[in-house]
Amino acid sequence: MNRIKEVLEQKGITQTWLAEQLGKSYNMVNGYVQNRHQPRLEVLFEIARILGVDPKELIKSSQNL
């Protein structure tokens, strides 16, 4: 599970904008946001860089479920 959706909402950033920054389709990013797909580690780090957050902030630990 990831927290991409929560971080996007906190920062007021759209999935469309993130998809453009990543060079990925909206559908792929939407899959990440909805937790249907988990990004590869490299992509997760790129998302964190783009959003200006620590990669740990994008990961939901099993203790938080």
UniProtKB/TrEMBL annotation:
InterPro entries in UniProt: Cro/C1-type_HTH (IPR001387), Lambda_DNA-bd_dom_sf (IPR010982)
Source taxonomy: Bacteria, Pseudomonadati, Bacteroidota, Cytophagia, Cytophagales
Pfam families per the UniProt record, alphabetical: HTH_3
Name by which UniProt lists this protein: Helix-turn-helix
One Gene Ontology MF term: DNA binding
Taxonomic superkingdom: Bacteria
HTH cro/C1-type domain residues: 4-58
Parts of the chain that traverse the membrane: none
